[in-house]
Structure formats: structure tokens, C-alpha cells
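# step 3/5: fold
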Amino acid sequence: MSRDFLVEIEKQGLMDQPLKELLEELSRRYQTAYYFSSNRISDCYGWVKARNGKVIRCFEFIGDYGVVLNQGELSDEERGLAIDFERLNQQIAEEVDDYTMPTEEDVIEIASVWSINPLDN
């Protein structure tokens, strides 16, 4: 996947259409639907929230490419994370040593407050 392709995804605000349609349909039926993603190998972390048939928040980070999706208003829970969502790609481009990128723990934290903790039995 080229960097230009990912930049175009971010500029156009695209997300996987089947996933978007599924979340919109589920949220029409159940008021709210969520999607969470974590892959430690590629450092890919993300989450999506849909409410009443519309995606209201979408975020995805891929290690080598940075933020590829960042749509909708940050939730209070996201603001509580130690991530500078607005400057993350700039910090990566400038090779800032001490920036905080999203991690699996962030995905679990968001999942825990938006719905359920996936690690709970």
C-alpha cells in the first residue's frame, strides 16, 4: 500500500464501504454499533462508532503510514488518551522521538468505555 494511496484515503475521508454499511445498518437497528481493530505486527489500531444509522467517529492509525482515518469529533474518552490526534502525522514526519502513537491498550480503553472490555471474561 503506497503512502499516496493512504493520504488520499485520509483526504477523502474514505473507510471500507462494506464495514461502513454494516455499522450503519446495525446502528439503525440497535441505536449504536462499534468496530475496534488492533494488530501489533503492523501497528494498526482503530475504532469506529455509529449511531442511529450514521458513522459519527472513525479513527485508524497504521504504524508506517500514520493516521489514515480521522473523522468526526473526538470523544471525551479519546481526549483522555495520551495521544495528540491533531499533530500525530506531523510528529511522525518530523521524526519526533517522544510522540505517543496509539497502542492496543488504547483500543481496549476505548472499547471498555464505549461498550465492553474485550479482555473481560
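# step 4/5: annotate
The first helix runs from residue 3 to 12.
# step 5/5: archive (pending)
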